[in-house]
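We modelled each protein-ligand pair independently. The example shown here corresponds to the adenosine-5'-triphosphate entry; the chain sequence is given first, followed by the ligand as SMILES.
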Amino acid sequence: MRKEAPYIDPGKVEISIKGLVKSFGEHGVLKGVDLDVKKGENVVVLGRSGSGKSVLIKIIAGLMFADRGEVDVLGRDISALTIRELDDLRLKMGFLFQGSALYDSMTLRENLEFPFVRSRKNIDRKTVDEAIRTVLSDVQLLDAIDQMPAELSGGQRKRAGIARTLMLQPEIMLYDEPTSGLDPITSVEIIHLINEVQKKRQTSSIIITHDLTCAKHTGDRIAVLVDGVFKRIGSFKEVFETNDPDIAGFYTYNFIQD
Ligand SMILES: Nc1ncnc2c1ncn2[C@@H]1O[C@H](COP(=O)(O)OP(=O)(O)OP(=O)(O)O)[C@@H](O)[C@H]1O
């Protein structure tokens, strides 16, 4: 598996996080997280269960608020936005939840149509249909357009979830365990799709995963969350060139495809 070198704009930071702190009662989860994600870059976040990865992306998406620190997304300080401004900013972010968050009672077409029509006023039928067909063909699900989510396989559901976020042409993608529960072959298909999205749409992404094959092949940089801070950030190779047991443990206990 080989990823083509993406075009990353080093001068354009799309997500900037400084000194982020988040606790739940006495339980400190994030204790001073710093991270920059550049335009066109995929950053993978690794960390043990409960280390705060989902909390981090929920804060970036404005679904949860930090106790301290700065989070700028597409040049906006999210803590300073009104609810309306936050809603507008969220339209530029695609969020792939673990369960793909499809509506079970709607067909695939309706699942894609619903957020699209809601976010664009006075849009005509032909434009809607064209947008749905383009996105479904990008994720190779056009044949499943009239199927219900329950009729789709796990991999198809992940692709449908990605398709739904792509309808709004996001500038940022937040993937929460995109390959979890998938067999290795289907995982590789999702890995390719994540890289296709990055290449074709120049998105800046954060990818949370426990799957080191996914980390290795999607991440331009890997950030490892340990005890509430990023203990190591760099390329896959750089990050794992260490004997630090907090980091090396991920590598030792993972099956990684080349
Ligand atoms: N709304 C909440 N209220 C209280 N505690 C919370 C809340 N959300 C998360 N936590 C706690 O924050 C910690 C980090 O949770 P988080 O879901 O971010 O972990 P994670 O790294 O994504 O784990 P996993 O890999 O298992 O998904 C956990 O201890 C969790 O119990």
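The mean pLDDT is 92.
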